[in-house]
Amino acid sequence: MSLIEPDGGVLVNLIVPEALRGAKIAEAQSLKSVTITEIDVQWVHVLSEGWASPLRGFMREREYLQALHFNCLRLPDGSVVNMSIPIVLAVSTEDKERLAKETAITLRKPSGEPLAILRNPEFYPHRKEERASRSFGTTHPGHPYIEIINASGDWLVGGDLAVLEPITYGDGLDHYRLSPADLRAEFARRGADAVYAFQLRNPIHNGHALLMTDTRERLLQRGYQNPILLLHPLGGWTKPDDVPTHVRMQQHDAVLDEGILDPETTVVAIFPSPMLYAGPTEVQWHAKARLNAGSNFYIVGRDPAGMKHPERLNAKGQSDDLYHPDHGQVVLQMAPGLEKLEILPFKVAAYDKKAGKMAFFDPSRAADFDFISGTQMRAYARNGQAPPDGFMGKKAWQVLVDFYRSA
User: Fold this and answer.
1) pTM (two decimals)
2) Could you read off the pLDDT of 297-312 as tens digits, one per residue?
3) What CATH number is given for 174-406 in this structure?
């Protein structure tokens, strides 16, 4: 089977070929430059490997307005591809005035090393309130990514990128950072006739594993011979109280080591995008990126890309969800430009006290089920208290205990 076609028909690769690298690095050293943030470096990474295909750089104003107001881009042939989030580079007024007449500028890492050349730059105003309200449905300054937007420059600059070298981080996790081209090659090597993607920014418990194995069974029943799971945790910037990427990857490895998921039918990799916490708007981006990596099925769960409201409480006096927990699933199944990607809604799993294991929730015997929250899970781990048998693999649980005890 040939894998699903990337958006725009061709997978974008903005990394300078090795044979030209020396000349391009020399050119970058000769150009005026701007230093970008660590999060901006992650967005360059995303763009360089084609996760945002067919984008070829930071958005120009017309692309930005389409993403902001329509959640999609119209291509020259009239077709539409999903693009629900702005991928933009903010700069200061001082940098805009210094660089506005340049035909090419160098983007430098916070360390000062040249990272990429931005050609034919286009500067336009960064209307932060409009960006925030349309991307997040709120302008609350306590939202973690809105804080980043508000602290950034008053101008945006778009243009075509030439990325000088493949981006690595030297953190011991680079072997997990497979590009869309790498993933497509791995799916082909394994003879996949279907690829289903599942994103987490949390540890895997046995309910997640049940969902993933059940999805494979359903695909086999539909006639697929070799469905492959892309277990694809987000590995870019996240808010400080999320479990760090290296801990999650260690925990995911333990899940495979214990055989809770089958290593033969599972590809584990890191999705390099930063997290925006933009709910139904952002989950479209997550799905589109996996389409570009070769997935033709996408599992979507409760409150995808969501978070608690910075201050609003619900009727029980608890922190309220910022977004309706079901809207991510609903929006994703209607999103323009994602028609060729089949969305698989998350089946709710909980701890079945009678069976002593995680199982799909049966409302006819609701009293038999316990929904173990993330807060409960963290409290168990911090206190060295074991969760109920069957909630999580023992090796995987020990990873969390070690992390929370040392935090």
Assistant:
1) 0.96
2) 999 988 899 999 999 9
3) 3.40.50.620
